[in-house]
């Protein structure tokens, strides 16, 4: 769509960028270059079990753009533009390949990383090749379908395009699990839960950040955990930053925790060191 009206992709995604990047270089060109020049990176954030052992449950791959002049650019600054410019399929393809290669690499190095989660945009599911691409990529890296979790948002489930449903069903049928990201922030969340085979709910970090200050947030979290439990879905609490948030979530039986308290997203080669430290922290807290 944005492609047809031409000028849209010549907008810039921040004032900084506007100043520094050459005026004639569109975001589209810059992003294509970023892929070609290896300026994109995945950082990985651990997800740990909420039962006190802090066992590594998996990692979430989060995209970063390491720009030579601007430094690290967060995905919120360029993913929406990539979606508008028709570049998101290429980006997601890169993320998928990179994350799968990295998981295989960690395992060859003897690190036991149970699975990797990655984020996909609603628009990605309109690509009729998506599910086949997922299957090909897993095969290429010798991974099993349950090594991969694909995080989607409610907007994906609400997209009326029949290709979207076809992809979701094909991905589920091959055994790749779907996770519903930012759960609780969309609308009519509950009415859509039964439409799709969702494996996991990611409780949005806005609820977690209000644990200490809001009884309503605590009640909503407890309710989401019950919903997950009764529907047989895993629940991940996102954005866990403090010990008191962790304690509340543990008391309520939240199975999986993710947040700065355990680790910020980090480059792949730091995971080994983090795992050693995490083992010590878990031993210390017992
Ligand atoms: P998300 O998938 O909900 O990811 C969680 C975000 O919260 C990440 O921001 C993460 O760095 C941040 N975070 C993690 N722990 C904490 C914490 O304890 N406190 C706080 N305040 N924040 C925490 P990030 O990496 O900037 O990503 C933002 C969003 O960009 C993601 O939200 C996701 O929607 C999107 N995104 C990231 N990578 C990709 C990608 O490869 N493809 C697509 N389509 N979207 C992506
Ligand atoms: Mg996510
Ligand atoms: Mg494709
Ligand atoms: Mg989220």
TrEMBL record:
Q: What positions does the domain EAL occupy? A: 24-279
The name this protein goes by in its record = Diguanylate cyclase/phosphodiesterase with PAS/PAC sensor(S)
Give the species.
Answer: Luteimonas cucumeris
Give the lineage. Bacteria, Pseudomonadati, Pseudomonadota, Gammaproteobacteria, Lysobacterales
Entire protein: which part is shown?
A: 581 to 866 of 866
């Amino acid at each position: 769509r944005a492609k047809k009206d031409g000028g849209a992709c010549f907008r810039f995604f921040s004032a900084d960028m506007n100043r520094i990047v050459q005026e004639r270089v569109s975001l589209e060109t810059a992003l294509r270059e970023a892929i070609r020049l290896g300026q994109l990176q995945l950082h990985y954030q651990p997800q740990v079990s909420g039962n006190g052992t802090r066992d590594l449950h998996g990692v979430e791959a989060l995209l970063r753009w390491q720009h030579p002049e601007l430094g690290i650019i967060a995905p919120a600054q360029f993913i929406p533009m990539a979606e508008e410019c028709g570049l998101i399929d290429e980006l997601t393809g890169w993320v998928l390949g990179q994350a799968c290669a990295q998981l295989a690499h960690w395992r060859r190095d003897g690190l036991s990383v149970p699975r990797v989660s990655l984020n996909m945009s609603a628009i990605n599911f309109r690509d009729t090749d998506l599910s086949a691409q997922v299957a090909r990529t897993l095969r290429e890296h010798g991974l099993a379908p349950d090594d991969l979790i694909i995080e989607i948002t409610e907007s994906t489930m609400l997209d009326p395009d029949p290709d979207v449903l076809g992809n979701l069903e094909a991905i589920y049928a091959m055994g790749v699990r779907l996770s519903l990201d930012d759960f609780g922030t969309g609308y009519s969340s509950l009415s859509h839960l039964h439409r799709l085979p969702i494996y996991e709910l990611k409780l949005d970090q806005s609820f977690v950040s209000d644990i200490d200050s809001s009884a309503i947030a605590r009640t909503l979290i407890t309710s989401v955990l019950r919903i997950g439990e009764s529907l047989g879905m895993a629940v991940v609490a996102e954005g866990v930053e403090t010990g008191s948030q962790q304690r509340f979530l543990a008391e309520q039986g939240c199975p999986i925790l993710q947040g700065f308290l355990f680790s910020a997203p980090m480059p792949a080669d730091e995971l080994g060191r983090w795992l050693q430290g995490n083992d010590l922290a878990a031993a210390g807290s017992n």
